[in-house]
Amino acid sequence: MTDQQTPVGELQSIPALLARNVARFGQRPAYREKEYGIWQSWTWAEAAEEIRALALGLLALGLKPGEHVAIIGRNRPAHYWSMMAAQMCGAVPVPLYQDAVAEEMAYVLGHCGARFVICGDQEQVDKVLEVGQTVEGAEQIIYTDKRGMRKYDHSHMNALADVQAEGRAAAQRLGPQLDALIAGLDYDSTCVMLYTSGTTGKPKGVVLSNRNIIETAKNTAEFDRLDHREEIVAYLPMAWVGDFIFSMGQAVWSGFTVNCPEGAHTMMTDMREIGPTYFFAPPRVFEGQLTSVMIRMEDAGRVKRWLFRRGMEIARRAGPALLDGKSVPLGDRLAYGLGRIFVFGPLKNTLGLSRVRVGYTAGEAIGPEIFDFYRSLGINLKQLYGQTEASVFITQQPDGQVRSDTVGVPSPGVEVRIGENGEVYYRSPGTFVEYFKNADSTASTKDAQGWVATGDAGFFEEATGHLRIIDRAKDVGRMADGSMFAPKYVENKLKFYPNILEAVVIGNGREYCTAMINIDLSAVGNWAERNNISYGSYQELAAHPQVYATVRAHVEEVNRSVAEDPMLAGCQVHRFLVLHKELDPDDGEMTRTRKVRRAVINEKFADLVGALYDGSSSIYTETEVTYEDGRKGSIKATLRIEDVPVFGQTAQQKVAAE
């Protein structure tokens, strides 16, 4: 392509790109899936045949152009094929989060009015049937996995393989109709509708066109020199825009291979077997991997622990510079080479990241300590900044210009400006078309010139032109003394410690900051086992005096670090408590992408917030929880509140803390 807006030839849709890939890469692997411990593979030619059969089957069942097709399930080739098959028919794919409870699913299905729902397995079918009692619209259910489905009423239900068989049988009759529908797709046809995470209200349906997805995929693939030889692992929720742009947009544009792991329980093994060259993960995945590494090191022998600590000292000193092609003293270079043989190489292989050429993290800010850890291993991890409404990409970090405190420069074709109030605005070929059935929100988010308000506060560095994101604009505030309050900055530092899974910092408009902290059950549980400490529940472990002492030490270390930043020194945590339960999307405390819903937490834990500020040393509380089967219950606990030293504070702040 020579123009940001006009594609070459007829490549104006995902199905058109699929046909191009069959012609160009026909016998190369397009999709792999691991099932029952065995990898199955489909070439581009084989995948195209499967997709066409499914599209013909959907037409035979009565799917019409413009209708919405919901897809619910784990990452499987058949589900990516379902999205492309729906597009071929002129319909709009709408992937949903597979762990969504029935209530969340009911809202999305009711809002988009999907007549066709493609489910991964029996569990998803059951949720759709439950929703069907209150939501009209879902007339045809198609399921991928046949296990457990034999005794269901199949009058409006079919196995995906059977729909494909019907499509193949109807190929001669419906083929010309399907070809006409595919030919009718253009750059302005809807490619997908993805629902936002809904941190502040009901999720919104973001309508993205072929122009949005293809232009973004083309520009960003060229930015990182992606081609058909890349291997990626598709494991993130299919309803998330990140998975769609990587596993669908860039994959089809570049022609690379999408690998679907068997499940979360085999993810690390599958990563090692595939060895992805292009890898994306939100911060929580990198945090989880680091926690796993630290737990293993605690269990290792004395010699291995010494080697690891010594190796990481060298890695932090020399790794990032070597990665960026900078000059490194010969001694450090040799030491790093030995570390690569005995420490970094085995560790990268354990993580499945040995072959990663380009890695990205996004979704929320990653702690600088975590980011630097992976860079020091020689993994080319970079940050990008984006959102659903931008088809992901707003900024990216060019090779050689990677830092933990910025999110890079505007992606190719993207314009970025900072508003008078510090809010970040952008416009690009990837800018969404509209919010489905929500003209008011569309108008308030995107103006007549195409500029979109991100809701994030940030600024450009004059020296480098890199964008720095401070926090969500609505979350950035002021302390009572006028100093800046940016909770995410402190929370990310806290989450660097393997013992801390989640943290919520409070302080806007107040004299000082406090925090509510979730421990990481796997990390702290491992510590308890090593020290012969028995516990019967998460609640009991979280309340253990030694756990509190450990968390207190972490908070104190973070305060020392925060005190070094003059702009944010006022965000040091003065008091904290360890929560008696994990924050959970099922309880509405987090989104499905694990973003904290601050308003919900402030309301739900109002008694805890009050105790953090009224000088109490403990607080009794009862909290409603949702069990896996949907039942409600409550947890009762008395939580201890502890004070933490702060550093470099003014006399006024010290008085306020006391």
Give a topology summary.
Layout: H1 14-25, E1 29-35, E2 38-43, H2 44-61, E3 68-72, H3 77-88, E4 92-96, H4 102-112, E5 116-119, H5 122-131, E6 140-143, E7 157-159, H6 160-169, H7 171-183, E8 190-195, E9 205-209, H8 210-223, E10 231-233, H9 241-254, E11 257-260, H10 267-274, E12 278-280, H11 283-299, H12 302-323, H13 330-351, E13 358-361, H14 368-376, E14 381-387, E15 392-396, E16 409-410, E17 415-418, E18 423-427, E19 434-435, H15 439-445, E20 452-460, E21 467-472, E22 477-478, E23 484-485, H16 487-494, E24 500-506, E25 513-519, H17 521-530, H18 538-542, H19 545-563, E26 573-578, H20 598-604, H21 606-613, E27 618-626, E28 632-643, H22 651-657
Parallel strand pairs: 1-11, 3-4, 3-5, 5-6, 6-7, 10-11, 12-13, 13-14, 25-26
Antiparallel strand pairs: 1-2, 8-9, 9-19, 14-15, 15-16, 17-18, 18-20, 20-21, 22-23, 24-25, 26-28, 27-28
Helix pairs in contact: 1-9, 2-3, 2-6, 2-7, 4-5, 8-9, 11-17, 12-13, 12-14
